[in-house]
TrEMBL record:
<dbReference type="GO" id="GO:0016301">
    <property type="term" value="F:kinase activity"/>
</dbReference>
<feature type="domain" description="Cyclic nucleotide-binding">
    <location>
        <begin position="34"/>
        <end position="117"/>
    </location>
</feature>
<keyword id="KW-0418">Kinase</keyword>
<dbReference type="Pfam" id="PF00027">
    <property type="entry name" value="cNMP_binding"/>
</dbReference>
<protein>
    <submittedName>
        <fullName>cAMP-binding domain of CRP or a regulatory subunit of cAMP-dependent protein kinases</fullName>
    </submittedName>
</protein>
<dbReference type="InterPro" id="IPR014710">
    <property type="entry name" value="RmlC-like_jellyroll"/>
</dbReference>
<keyword id="KW-0808">Transferase</keyword>
<dbReference type="InterPro" id="IPR018490">
    <property type="entry name" value="cNMP-bd_dom_sf"/>
</dbReference>
<dbReference type="InterPro" id="IPR000595">
    <property type="entry name" value="cNMP-bd_dom"/>
</dbReference>
Length: 203
């Protein structure tokens, strides 16, 4: 397939088998959407009406707590992006998703996603698996945000997003870790020359 939506099709195919008829059904249901750096996929207080697949680019998920932004996740190439709580309930979002690089996505509306679930050969299985994965991931990220130590959060960042250290600012990493940039610098200084994979979360 030469269609630029190929990566989206391959992502779905990695979860469930797709026949030629399934692919023909899927292609027109996704539409391209371009976000410039700083644009929002969804803002706090808005209802999330679509699910996106990131073709190129990078987004951050964050919550506001007493005026302080706390990043709890990133989305990058080949990831689905959505505030699933808002999307599924059609209630205003309690968090924001923002592009931190110019990004190209393919998005599908709620109505078309329901059609995909209903008409794909393995549509119901696809929907169930994706929702289960997102639920487990999101709960783990939010629990970690409030319970793990800064060192454990930093190690998690390095483990989960090994390619992002050169793509995001120190502010973004510090926000994910849950510390000020100065404190992140001190963590990095302590770890200088160490093998971070051997550092326990209790350090």
């Amino acid at each position: 397939m030469d269609n630029p939506i190929t990566k989206t099709i391959e992502k779905i195919r990695s979860i469930v088998p797709l026949s030629d008829a399934d692919i023909e059904l899927t292609l027109p249901l996704f539409q391209p959407w371009h976000l410039r750096k700083g644009d929002y996929f969804v803002q706090e207080g808005q209802v999330c009406h679509q699910v996106g697949f990131i073709q190129t680019g990078l987004v951050r998920y964050f919550v506001n707590q007493d005026g302080d932004e706390k990043i709890y996740s990133f989305g990058l190439e080949n990831d689905f992006v959505c505030d699933y709580e808002s999307f599924l309930s059609q209630q205003p979002s309690r968090r924001a998703v923002q592009a931190i690089e110019d990004s190209t996505l393919y998005v599908i509306s709620s109505a078309n996603l329901q059609r995909l679930f209903a008409e794909l050969t393995y549509g119901e299985r696809f929907g169930r698996i994706v929702i289960e994965q997102i639920f487990v991931q999101t709960i783990g990220q939010l629990v970690s945000l409030y319970t793990d130590s800064p060192e454990a959060r930093y190690k998690a960042f390095l483990d989960e997003y090994p390619s992002l250290a050169t793509r995001v600012t120190q502010y973004h990493i510090a926000s994910y870790v849950g510390v000020k940039p100065q404190s992140l610098s001190r963590i990095r200084a302590r770890w200088a020359g160490k093998d971070y994979t051997r550092i326990s979360s209790s350090e």
